[in-house]
Write a structure and sequence with these properties.
Blueprint (H helix, E strand, L loop, with lengths): L3 H7 L2 H49 L2 E3 L2 E3 L16 E7 L16 E4 L16 E7 L20 E8 L2 E13 L14 E11 L1 H51 L12 H43 L6 H21 L11 E2 H15 L6 E6 L4 E2 L3 H18 L3 E8 L3 E8 L6 H6 L16 H12 L3 E6 L6 E8 L1
Parallel strand pairs: 10-12
Antiparallel strand pairs: 1-2, 3-5, 3-8, 4-5, 6-7, 7-8, 9-11, 12-13, 13-15, 14-15
Helix pairs in contact: 2-3, 4-5, 5-9, 6-7, 7-9
């Protein structure tokens, strides 16, 4: 079954290069092996052909023909022809009717080989229905039955083929020649046919041939397997060395994303160096712009708060005006915090959650000590918030502050993460939030200061910050403490 992880793996450039290199090796090596094996077979077969040709010429050199038939020496120079079933055999066939047997084998009964009847024509076959008589055979053939058909090429031509003797495969090389005999006049004055065609067949056992091929095949595939293993190791090592800069770039980008670095500092190959420089320029530009933006907003807040403070200090200011000025002051603070959020550029930011949560858990009980509120913390030490530290402090601070206001004596902060998301939960042992308010609290148009049980402007800020990071904020009832449970999920 094709899994998502396998699909993600195939999107990896490193995986694609390794798979393509391995496929190339696995395809080429067998092709090379089959090619070399076939070439060796042809070479051995060619060597056997040359050897059989040499035997043909050796037999032909001692062959004599007269009107009485073929005259052969009793012992041939090649001793294997003289040893019974030695694996090397010689046969001479002719289309002439034998008047007499060969002088060296007077007890040899004349045999004949029938050529197969066929409608096909070939320059390597004698005329149809022509009978080939065995005129002579070497002593090594004693006790061996010859096949019913033997190749008969045209005069002056040779033919290599295979036959079976006693069920074993043998190579046979046949060569046809014609002897010219002195012409004789018959009684009616006509000259008789003075041609004596013969075909010399040299037959050799294929055992040696097959052993050579088998040994070569075993050696070839053994070394090809060794070479295949070496090539795989070399290819993987080469690809690892070639793609090492990409791994380094990935490591540095991960460090920047987790807030552990601000710049790409390593030296990269020419193809990647330009990319690294552009990324560094982008990071510097964004950081400087965000810093200038925050400074400008701080100046704006300071310039607005000073006139508002002067207005609030007026003695003759009515209660309604004072309330409206205070409301304007809260709105300015709220909107400034929204504008200062770094969610739009959070891809290269990162802060360990524990750095922010530890400070809040340590300081908040000092504020809420009447009655004493105990804040328990269950935060994974390697959990990373992909955003600005100030935004995380604002989110956790407001959630914990509201939980302490609503709690009777205990608050629980839990932070977990996986490969896809960061999950934050803040629970308390208070009375909880009514279900009707749970659905209304996130609706637009609700006044920020209309939330009950302490969940007012702070929760609105949390909602806006979570939305700016494209996170999810939900409210439910705590299963452990019985009060409210705020759950935040940030996708990586």
């Amino acid at each position: 079954m094709f899994s998502v992880s396998r699909l993600a793996t195939m999107h990896s450039l490193k995986a694609r290069l390794i798979v393509s290199a391995l496929l190339l090796i696995l395809i080429l090596m067998p092709l090379i092996g089959f090619g070399l094996n076939d070439a060796f077979k042809q070479q051995v077969k060619s060597a056997s052909l040359n050897e059989l040709k040499a035997y043909v010429y050796a037999v032909l050199a001692v062959t004599e023909v007269n009107r009485d038939g073929i005259i052969m020496p009793e012992v041939l120079l090649e001793n294997q022809f003289n040893v019974i079933q030695s694996g090397l055999y010689a046969v001479i066939t002719t289309s002439k009717s034998p008047d007499k047997t060969a002088k060296n084998n007077e007890n040899f009964d004349a045999k004949f080989v029938e050529k197969p009847k066929s409608t096909a024509t070939s320059s390597h076959l004698p005329p149809l229905n022509q009978v080939q008589h065995i005129a002579w055979q070497s002593n090594s053939l004693l006790g061996i039955e010859l096949p019913k058909t033997l190749p008969t090429p045209v005069k002056g031509m040779g033919q290599l083929s295979e036959v079976k003797l006693n069920g074993q495969p043998h190579l046979i090389y046949s060569f046809s020649v014609s002897f010219e005999l002195p012409a004789l006049n018959s009684k009616d004055g006509q000259q008789s046919d003075n041609r004596f065609p013969i075909t010399i067949h040299i037959i050799k056992d294929q055992t040696e041939f097959q052993q050579q091929v088998s040994q070569f095949t075993q050696q070839l595939w053994r070394w090809l397997m060794i070479l295949l293993g070496l090539l795989v190791v070399i290819q993987i090592a080469w690809l690892w060395w070639t793609l090492k800069p990409l791994s380094s770039l990935e490591t540095e980008l991960s460090a920047i994303e987790n807030g552990k670095a601000n710049q790409l500092t390593r030296q990269y190959p020419t193809e990647l160096q330009a990319v690294a420089q552009q990324l560094n320029t982008l990071l510097n530009t964004e950081q400087n712009q965000r810093k200038r933006y925050r400074n400008a907003l701080a100046d704006l807040a300071h310039s607005l708060k000073t006139p508002l403070a002067v207005i609030q200090s007026q003695v003759d200011l009515s209660a309604e005006s004072f309330e409206q000025v205070s409301h304007i002051n809260r709105i300015i603070g709220h909107q400034l915090k929204r504008a200062q959020s770094a969610a739009g550029s959070a891809w290269h930011l990162g802060v360990p959650v524990v750095e922010v949560s530890d400070k809040l858990v340590r300081n908040l009980p000092k504020i809420y000590n009447q009655p004493l509120i105990v804040i328990e913390e269950s935060v994974k030490r390697d959990a990373i918030f992909k955003g600005d530290q100030a935004d995380l402090s604002e989110i956790l601070g407001n959630l914990l502050d509201n939980a302490c206001k609503a709690a009777k004596g205990k608050v629980l902060l839990s932070v977990t993460h996986n490969a896809e998301s960061l999950i934050i939960q803040v629970e308390d042992d208070g009375n909880g939030i009514d279900e009707s308010l749970q659905t209304q609290i996130f609706e637009r148009g609700i006044r920020a200061d209309s939330y009950k049980l302490g969940h007012g402007i702070g929760l609105a800020i949390v909602r806006d910050l979570v939305d700016s990071y494209h996170g999810q904020l939900s409210i439910g009832r705590s299963e452990l403490l019985g009060g409210a449970c705020f759950t935040l999920i940030f996708k990586y």
